[in-house]
Write a structure and sequence with these properties.
Layout: E1 13-17, E2 23-29, E3 32-36, H1 42-53, H2 73-81, H3 84-87, H4 91-108, H5 118-126, H6 132-151, H7 178-187, H8 193-202, H9 208-211, E4 219-220, E5 223-227, E6 234-238, H10 241-247, H11 268-281, H12 289-302, H13 307-314, H14 319-325, H15 331-343
Antiparallel strand pairs: 1-2, 2-3, 4-5, 5-6
Helix pairs in contact: 2-4, 2-6, 4-6
């Protein structure tokens, strides 16, 4: 590339280190102040540099980016999508973030970032009181986006910092009871795909995204190997007899144990919808696939398993996460065990008589 200066960078470019210790290339010229991809070489950088020279203040990397206006939330979203922070996320997380961001853009995309104030954000989040979890997720993501705007010097301070979300009152997904598990089993007999789905979910205690990829190639002796999609945690899970019996007659030429009506593996979302229908057929409209993961944790807690044992099965990394899953454990049964431990074995304590002084007779 022509026009390189002594620092080895093209004209108008300088190397900066952001607050995340990431290297970035800043392009500054009259009327143009933006960031270009790092490293400063290759077709991607050449394209971005050419656009910057032409007066394009945002390097675009998504469909419709040419319609964004510099300084707006639209432009911030575009910039964040191409950032190392976003690109380094798991695909499932990217999809979740994009869904929330794009919904917000529909209402506020044309607004200018420098005009955004703390009271604006509090009003926006406050309007979501009827759906507090969604409000908290949006607030968390806005804090990330506004930190990105701060890094780019689009704003002088992050107005979202310090804003508190809604108190968490929900228990999340319903934990299946033993009565509900029995009702499902009565509706869906052994040998059916619906029963197989329940067995895989309950007897591995894994998320639906991990269950849909389980197949013969994941088996290693008496264990089934799992690499959790959400966390990348790797597990070797002992296969209970109920699970080995359920898969014994399944065809070995299929990529996964669970397949669609077309013989293809389920997507996590597709399986979730399909399993919801199977729950509805058993009049369990409030039950879900994730609730069986919580039911498995509940059973372990009621069985007296320690938090470390439960973590080894579920793949959680700390006991606080486990406590969320075991909250539905039978309190009365656990309390009985605890109280019996307090009672222990009764022993009588002998009374201690004061020592006699030399020359003193008993009873003096």
């Amino acid at each position: 590339m022509k026009g390189k200066r002594r620092n080895g960078l093209p004209k108008h470019c300088s190397l900066v280190i952001d607050r995340h210790k990431k290297r970035r290339i800043r392009f500054r010229a009259k009327g143009v102040d933006t960031y270009l991809p790092y490293p400063p070489s290759g077709s991607e950088f050449e394209k971005a540099y050419g656009e910057a020279l032409a007066g394009v203040t945002e390097w675009r990397a998504n469909i419709g980016a040419s319609r964004t206006k510099a300084g707006t939330f639209d432009a911030l979203a575009v910039s964040y999508y191409r950032s190392p922070e976003f690109q380094g996320l798991r695909d499932s997380t990217k999809q979740t973030y994009r869904r929330i961001i794009e919904k917000f853009r529909e209402q506020h995309g044309k607004r200018v970032m420098r005009d955004l104030r703390r009271d604006h954000l509090k009003a926006i989040i406050g309007s979501m009181a009827d759906r507090p979890q969604a409000g908290n997720r949006l607030l968390s993501l806005l804090k990330i986006l506004l930190d990105h705007a701060l890094d780019n010097r689009w704003i002088a301070a992050n107005p979202a910092q310090g804003i508190k979300g809604f108190k968490k009152k929900t228990k999340g997904f319903h934990t299946w009871t033993e009565v509900e598990i029995a009702a499902y089993e009565e509706r869906h007999p052994a040998g059916s795909k619906a029963r197989l789905a329940l067995i895989l979910l309950l007897y591995t205690a894994q998320r639906r995204s991990d269950v849909v990829v389980m197949g013969w190639e994941k088996l290693k002796g008496k264990y089934i190997q799992v690499k959790q999609i959400k966390t990348d945690v790797e597990l070797d899970l002992y296969m209970l007899p109920a699970l080995t019996d359920a898969i014994r007659t399944l065809p070995r030429d299929k990529p996964t144990f669970l397949t669609t009506e077309f013989g293809k593996p389920f997507t996590a979302a597709g399986f979730g919808n399909w399993f919801r229908d199977r729950c509805n057929e058993a009049d369990l409209t409030h039950c879900s696939a994730h609730g069986l993961r919580k039911a498995a944790a509940r059973r372990m807690a009621e069985g007296g398993m320690s938090g470390d044992v439960i973590k080894a099965v579920t793949g959680h990394t700390n006991l606080k996460q486990v406590s969320v899953y075991t909250a539905a454990a039978n309190q009365a049964a656990l309390a009985e065990k605890g109280l019996k431990a307090i009672g222990g074995t009764k022993t009588r304590t002998k009374s201690v008589q004061p020592k006699q002084k030399v020359g003193q007779t008993k009873g003096e």
